[in-house]
Write a structure and sequence with these properties.
Strand content: 15-25%
Structural class: alpha+beta
Shape: globular
Helix content: 25-40%
Largest sheet: 8 strands, antiparallel
Radius of gyration: 23 Å
Low-confidence stretches: 1-10, 280-302
Mean pLDDT: 90
Number of strands: 19
Number of helices: 19
Length: 528
């Protein structure tokens, strides 16, 4: 049912009149959907607006803030840290209607998109031109938007060599809560294109990772690189954590791999078994279609088929790497150096996982696990020098909850990645049986949803997952860790340098004096 009385009381009908090509959503089922993120649920927004242009966005937020409504920008919606959930009454701004690729400049090597464009959409537009962005999206890139990645930070494809999403961004158009349109980077002057980020103070950097607290991303410009013509996956097995940590750090310092992902071997084996023969055949088909030639594809697929689900045996942890280059000789040279660097710390195994990963980088992304469980994937980014100590500390914290973990049927699975030459991402994925809410239902295969629709709510298991996330946050802070996806959960402001925090608050005051732009994000105090 539409919230007609709320619309009238809040003046939302007048705001609706400001929309030209955009939409206003007030249906109860839709508002319930928009009250969820990956893990949590907040209050329903008064309404959801879907603007269709920068000018429409600017007029809308200016009018809404003048009426005292809080404004919560939202991209693909895959936050698990309350990124866009309400902390006070207001409206949601769903940016997904602003999804155009505005300009691909092959001469000056940049691309500009509207913030609601997904990473998969952008990559599909660039691939026929033989181009790519350095960081080119998270694994949820079929749904995750580039504006969301700019606001929250994203890690995955390209991160081992090129860093996080912010490292690829060179400029933005940001709309402040009072409707001002701010252009960062070299495009901030007349007749200047967005080809360069650093000209004086880095204003682009101020809005990267702000979680929408400082303004709403309307457009984003990103660097381009030539799309590598040769790609090779490498995998290594390790008998213990310390060998894996040391090897992944060694490889990262060389700067040779584009992606570096670590998994438990039992996780890969269970996934292979759960997807069975049909899933394996589909995966092999994707490998063949993604290869540069049919012959190469058949060779890779045959190798994978022979390896089957047994490639991970006799190893506790696996390191999966992707190396790229302009030709096979370049890639083979990099691969040889990686084998030399790993040395006797690990053993090379079939490259099944990285090959499949690149065969379909942006698959249809189920919110539930392959067995229909709810999930929570918190992470921390650490310096290599602190990873082993952090790991032992976190293990002890998890062990202290062992009885509760087993009683509630919560699994805790670590996943790892490296970022650039000096940072290590440590993630734990918790999974448990729980009810299926509207958000998860819309983003999961209907056949899988049907199998688990009967499950009852599991508040105790959900709270345990939140407690385990807190354990990771505390251990991470103790060993100097930081976070992307800060939202309203990770402790950005905790014991932060007083002068730096004062500067941020002054900037917030300048851009959003009434605290109406995603209030509570970054831990910034709510304004009454």
């Amino acid at each position: 049912m539409p919230k007609t009385s709320t619309v009238e009381h809040s003046g939302l009908a007048e705001l609706h009149a400001l929309l030209n090509g955009g939409k206003l959503i007030t249906e109860e089922a839709e508002l319930e959907y928009f009250s969820h993120d990956y893990f949590n649920r907040g209050p329903e927004p008064e309404a959801v607006f879907q603007p269709s242009s920068v000018e429409e966005l600017a007029g809308l937020v200016a009018a809404a803030s003048a009426r005292g409504l809080a404004i919560y920008p939202r991209g693909g919606g895959f936050s698990y840290t309350d990124g866009y959930l309400l902390t006070k009454p207001g409206i949601s701004i769903d940016m997904r209607s602003m999804d155009r690729v505005i300009e691909i400049n092959e001469e000056d090597m940049y691309v500009t998109v509207e913030a609601g464009c997904t990473w998969a959409q952008l990559d599909e537009a660039l691939a026929p031109r033989g181009l790519r962005t350095p960081f080119w999206g998270p694994m949820s890139g079929r749904n995750a938007t580039i504006g969301g990645g700019a606001s929250q930070g994203a890690v995955s494809f390209g991160s081992a060599k090129y860093g996080i999403s912010a490292d690829t961004i060179i400029g933005m158009t940001v709309v402040s809560v009072d409707g001002r349109i701010i252009q960062t980077g070299s495009a901030g002057q007349p007749n200047h294109s967005p080809f360069f980020r650093n000209y004086g103070p880095d204003l682009t950097g101020l809005f990267c990772g702000d979680c929408g607290a400082l303004g709403i991303k309307a457009t984003v410009s990103l660097k381009l690189i030539k799309r590598p013509k040769s790609v090779l996956g490498l995998s290594f097995g390790f008998v213990d954590y310390e060998s894996y940590f040391k090897a992944s750090a060694r490889v990262a310092r060389e700067g040779l791999a584009t992606e570096s992902i670590g998994t438990l071997s039992e996780t890969v084996e269970e996934r292979a078994k759960s997807e069975g023969l049909v899933g394996g055949i589909k995966a092999l088909g994707k490998v063949i279609s993604a290869s540069p030639s049919l012959g190469t594809g058949l060779a890779r697929a045959t190798k994978m088929a022979l390896a089957g689900a047994n490639f991970a045996k006799n190893h506790q942890l696996l390191l999966h790497l992707v190396v790229e280059g302009h030709d096979d000789a370049m890639v083979n040279s990099q691969a040889a150096r990686i084998r030399e660097v790993v040395g006797d710390l690990g053993q090379e195994i079939a490259n099944t996982v990285p090959t499949m990963l690149r065969a379909e980088p942006f698959p249809s992304y189920d919110m539930l696990s392959v067995t229909g469980q709810r999930q929570l994937p918190p992470s921390v980014i650490l310096p290599f020098s602190k990873v082993i100590e952090f790991h032992h500390d976190l293990e002890q914290r998890i062990a202290a909850r062992k009885e509760q973990i087993e009683a509630l049927g919560v699994s805790v699975i670590p996943v790892f990645a490296t970022i650039g030459t000096g940072a290590f991402l440590y993630e734990i994925v918790m999974a448990w049986d729980d009810n299926v809410d509207e958000f998860h239902r819309r983003h999961t295969n209907p056949d899988l949803v049907a199998k688990v629709e009967h499950r009852e709510p599991a508040p105790a298991a959900r709270q345990l997952a939140a407690d385990l996330r807190s354990d990771l946050v505390e251990a991470g802070y103790l060993f100097g860790g930081v976070h992307v996806q800060i939202g309203k959960v990770y402790p950005y402001d905790r014991e932060r340098n007083t002068e730096a925090l004062s500067l941020l608050k002054s900037l917030k005051q300048e851009l959003d004096p009434r605290g109406l732009c995603n209030p509570g994000a970054l831990g910034l105090a709510l304004v009454d």
